[in-house]
């Protein structure tokens, strides 16, 4: 055989080998679908898009399809519908309180096996308060990502105008009521032009209510998610305090206070204090035309807040390769550097102590120390209300909270009714 002939055959063999390998190389790319709870458009979408793009640059063998799935409520509904149709996403950010629902619906698998040998080291890197809504039955079902607590925001200019120390937030329930009385402002006709305080009671009433029950020394459910304590005396007392702020003390709007309009009221000077998620921190910082403070929630028997926000979940139907890709994605998104980046951009609490040791977070806190309040409050925070059949249990509590706040029921009757309805729902899970 001539040298030219041998060369041509060798070249052809190389080309054939290359073509044979091409499908394998293509197949090596793992695609995962990622549901994220926000409407399409807006700054958060751009942040997520940027983080996904950066992840794909670092992991060229993994392709992430981000699906913006609406509100948390929209997202869980879409997840469950997709799961029942055999088309669940591979991963999603859903409320930490959806853990029992997703387990009961047989929609998720724990991260323990997929995370491999370093699973426990990874899980223990997060704040324990966030893991309280992420683990049950000795397994880890959720990975903290966009997590929060409730904090009190106050308008320092309004405090100065009312003769209060602008650097001192109310430390306890009595002080909050007294401060709110001085801060409530009326015009010549007696109409309120600025409320002393607003605690939202739409959207997530039970969550804001835990900002009262936790400091009063009571938790609303057990760790197994099958028992609740809605009618405990401390719970009734907490609701009475909330009702009295409007009905008796006249320092809080009557009826239902909308979750979405409370930050707007604060920024427009219509309320001097508000209770809101730390997830609103960046919004308030960017848009407040006055100096403001951020504080832990006022104490009664103790300090404390429920945690809140969303976790990564891993869904059934994912191949072993997709499970590994989800773990890689969740690990990358929650590294100290990324957690710090996300916290600074959004106001959510960075999910690990290591994130607060990064240069970026240290510089941020030096410039904006209010952001450290949520971190410090984690030492006294408890799990957000989460039970089996959580949507129905939370609705029973929410409906009765609103009945009390609109004076349709007494606090004692409202909590008695909430307890009875929740007991009926949870009896089959004991």
TrEMBL record:
Keywords: Periplasm, Signal. GO terms for cellular component: periplasmic space. It comes from the Bacteria. It is found in: Periplasm. The keyword Hydrolase does not apply. It holds the Pfam family SBP_bac_8. Residues 1-27 form the signal peptide. Its main location: periplasm. InterPro entries: Bact_solute-bd_prot1 (IPR050490), SBP (IPR006059), TAT_signal (IPR006311). CDD domains: PBP2_UgpB. Belongs to the bacterial solute-binding protein 1 family. This is ABC transporter substrate-binding protein. The lineage of its organism: Bacteria, Pseudomonadati, Pseudomonadota, Alphaproteobacteria, Hyphomicrobiales.
């Amino acid at each position: 055989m001539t040298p030219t002939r041998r060369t041509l055959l060798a070249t052809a063999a190389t080309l054939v080998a290359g073509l044979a390998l091409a499908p394998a190389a293509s197949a090596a790319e793992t695609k995962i679908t990622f549901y994220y709870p926000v409407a399409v458009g807006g700054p958060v979408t751009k942040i997520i898009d940027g983080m996904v793009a950066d992840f794909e640059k670092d992991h060229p063998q993994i392709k992430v399809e981000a699906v913006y799935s609406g509100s948390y409520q929209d997202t869980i509904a879409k997840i469950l519908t997709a799961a029942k149709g055999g088309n669940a996403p591979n991963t999603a950010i859903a409320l930490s309180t959806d853990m029992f629902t997703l387990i009961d619906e047989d929609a998720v698998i724990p991260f323990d096996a997929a995370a491999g040998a370093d699973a426990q080291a990874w899980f223990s890197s997060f704040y324990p308060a966030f893991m309280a809504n992420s683990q049950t039955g000795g397994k880890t079902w959720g990975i903290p990502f966009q997590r929060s607590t409730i904090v009190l925001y106050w308008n320092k200019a309004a405090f100065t105008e009312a003769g209060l120390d602008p650097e001192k937030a109310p430390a306890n329930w009595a002080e909050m009521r007294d401060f709110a009385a001085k801060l409530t402002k009326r015009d010549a006709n007696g109409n309120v032009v600025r409320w002393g305080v607003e605690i939202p009671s739409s959207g997530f009433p039970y969550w804001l209510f835990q900002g009262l029950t936790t400091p009063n020394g009571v938790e609303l459910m057990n760790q197994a998610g099958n028992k609740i304590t809605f009618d405990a005396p401390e719970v009734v007392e907490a609701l009475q305090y909330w009702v009295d702020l409007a009905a008796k003390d006249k320092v809080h709007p009557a009826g239902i206070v909308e979750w979405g309009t409370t930050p707007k009221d604060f920024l427009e000077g219509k309320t001097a204090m508000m209770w809101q998620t730390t997830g609103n921190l960046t919004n308030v910082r960017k848009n407040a035309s006055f100096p403001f403070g951020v504080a832990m929630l006022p104490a009664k028997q103790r300090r404390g807040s429920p945690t809140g926000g969303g976790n990564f979940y891993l869904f059934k139907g994912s191949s072993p390769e997709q499970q590994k890709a989800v773990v890689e994605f969740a690990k990358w998104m929650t590294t100290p550097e990324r957690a710090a980046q996300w916290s600074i951009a959004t106001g959510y609490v960075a999910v690990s102590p290591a994130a607060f040791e990064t240069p970026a977070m240290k510089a941020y806190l030096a410039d904006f120390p209010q952001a450290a309040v949520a971190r410090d409050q984690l030492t006294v925070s408890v799990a957000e209300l989460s039970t089996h059949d959580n949507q129905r249990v939370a609705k029973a509590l929410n409906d009765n909270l609103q009945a009390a706040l609109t004076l349709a029921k007494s606090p004692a009757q409202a909590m008695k009714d909430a307890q009875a309805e929740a007991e009926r729902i949870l009896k089959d899970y004991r």
